Amino acid sequence: MLLVCAALLAARPAFASEQALQAILDEANDLKDGDACDGAVPLYDEVISRADADAPIRGYALYNRAVCEELLDSPDAARSTYGEVLAGPRTWEVRRDALFRRGLLEVLREGDLRGALRDLRLARRGAAPLDAAIVDLQVARASFLLRRPQKAARLVARAAAVIESARDEDADRRGTPLDWYVGEAAALRGDLWLRAGAAVPLTVRGAGRVTKRIEKRAAFLESAQSFYVLAIEAGRAPWSQHALLQMGRGYATVAAELQALRASIERGEGTLTTTERAALAAWLEPRIAGQLRKATESWLLCARVETEIGGAPLIGSSCRAEIDAVVRRQER
After folding, report:
1. Is 325 part of any domain?
2. Strand runs labelled E in 117-209
3. Which of 41, 139, 174, 205: CA 20 to 30 A from 47?
4. Cβ-based neighbours of 188, under 8 Å, separated by 6 or more
5. CA torsion sign, 262 to 264 to 265 to 270?
6. Structural domain count of the chain
């Protein structure tokens, strides 16, 4: 009996310590969820320093500290901390989430994209359909950045269908609203169409060919616009801003290329007759002005999103810079 009592007394301090660490972790998580990561990080550090090296609670604290480091705009620190999670004996769920977020971090920074693909493929193993679709979406973005448009288009279409079918769940298991991923998928599909359109050259090679290429370019831009509108309707500021920025750039690029085409016509380049040359120049004039007007309207809306509801400051500043550039061109 005395031996049993002694064993129980010896176990109490360890149990009390576990309870104390769990209370600290819970407080840190509450701060993180309340957008107070600067207060949460020291608490995560306390759990990490006091917990046993192989204790699951230490892995959870490391993972959440890394998330906070991302939110505090310290991507290098976050990447290192995710590495600590992956180096230790943690549960597969925490390891999968660490792989996913480390891969996503590289995609967002356009950093080590091949390393990101390795992490994301590992994170996808055994994942539920929705989790797998969210991973596929990030793989699609990495593939787009790596100039693999066919793979990106295939993956984003598949991922978008799964995410759309699950929208009644509101959020993924990490708490991210599914509308976020809907906006991300639509924005990426818009980018794919925009890049495809940019590959259609606008050069003087006969009046018929020129107008057909312009019409083809317009069709690509219209397809891009339809997806950008979906990204805007999803209601998530970073993706709606991205859509408006890119949509404006698409219009502006077409306007610049049409202006260059008109200039080459006026210089007498190509095999057009005098009548064809005059007709094409007259046909181009209102289209150039229309594209520039649409570009400016898109950028103004982008800037307004940040002003009125918040969003991504870097994208907002890019939109304002584009507007300033248009103003400077008009003043010349």
Report:
1. yes
2. none
3. 174
4. 137, 140, 141, 144, 152, 156
5. negative
6. 1
